[in-house]
Amino acid sequence: MYVDSHCHLNFPELAANLPEILQRMAQNQVSHALVVSVCMPDWPGLMALVEPHDHLYASVGVHPDYQDTPEPTVAQLVELGQSDKVVALGETGLDYFRLEEPLEWQRERFRTHIRASRESGLPIIIHTRSASEDTLRIMKEEGADKVGGVMHCFTESWEVARAAMDLNFYISLSGIVTFKKAEDLQQLARKMPLDRLLIETDSPYLAPVPHRGKLNDPSKVMHVAEKIADLRGITAAEVGQATTDNFFKLFNKIKR
After folding, report:
1. CA distances for 94 relative to 50, 98, 105, angstroms
2. DSSP state of 70
3. Cα 236 to chain center, whole Å?
4. Which residue ranges of the chain lie beneath pLDDT 50?
5. Domain extent for 137
6. Contact 244, 2 (CB under 8 A)
7. Per-residue pLDDT tens digits for 120-177
8. Which residues partner with 34 through β-bridges?
9. Total Cβ atoms within 10 A of residue 133
10. Among 32, 90, 121, 205, which one is most buried in terms of CB atoms within 10 A?
11. Degrees (nearest 5) of the Cα angle 3, 224, 134?
């Protein structure tokens, strides 16, 4: 049994084929998926998509790449997080890869989400790219460890992973770990404690081998587990069991 801890089923290219995707998830033993928010204007549609399905859940928050978009307040995030379907805040964080300074608005948005996480008790989904030093600094300054969360689609160093785990965070690996040239990430996958590991698709992006370059969806998360299992010399079932247990421990509003 597998769980996709991070996907974007509400994006048009996936939402249009939702019945087929849900069927493939069942065939591939993917029991649950967390549909992750990237901006507030799209959030009502995301909620409408997950609401009819017992095995789909949502987050609420704003991605760091979205510059010209309504900013949520702490109070707004806390209020929206009270829905039974909302089990996390984010995705939020810092991304210095695409955007250039001044980026104080991005750092303030990140702080807002951490403060809402502490007030609501909901774990936080963090995106970090080319910004690990500031990401960890703000996590420490704002007390992100008080609730914890996950570093999603992780591609940083082992040192960053250890620092995040010390702050009560899980590490989530995506289809990137299956890519031939992802040697550093594969080495990290060998070293990761199984009790701090999650798996995800980040679909519709980053389809794992053998589907690389094609449209991704949660039914393909099994290939991430299979690759990690191969790297560690264990079975995919063991990876699936551990990451599923971790998913329900972290996102503890979900009834297993």
Report:
1. 27, 11, 10
2. P
3. 20
4. none
5. 2-250
6. yes
7. 999 999 999 999 999 999 999 999 999 999 999 999 999 999 999 999 999 999 999 9
8. 57
9. 13
10. 90
11. 85
In angstroms, the CA 109 to CA 16 distance is: 31
What does 99-136 look like in DSSP terms, one character per residue?
A: --S--HHHHHHHHHHHHHHHHH---EEEEEES-HHHHH
In a domain, 121, yes or no: yes
What pTM was computed for the model? 0.97
Please report where in the chains the tokens 């890869």 appear, as a residue: 97
Task: Judge whether 256 lies within some domain.
Answer: no
User: What's the domain count of the chain?
Assistant: 1
83 lies in a domain?
yes
Cα angle 55, 74, 139 (rounded to 5 degrees) comes to 85
pLDDT value of residue 256: 85
Q: What is the CATH number of the domain that holds 111?
A: 3.20.20.140
What pLDDT is attached to residue 18? 98
User: Residues of 104-117 as b/e, b for ≥16 C-beta within 10 angstroms?
Assistant: eebbebbbbbbbbb
Residue 29 falls within a domain, yes or no? yes
CA distances from 22 to 14, 55, 161, 204 (A): 11, 10, 32, 14
Using CB atoms within 10 Å of the CB of residue 183, give its burial: 0 to 12 exposed, 13 to 18 middle, 19+ buried.
Answer: exposed
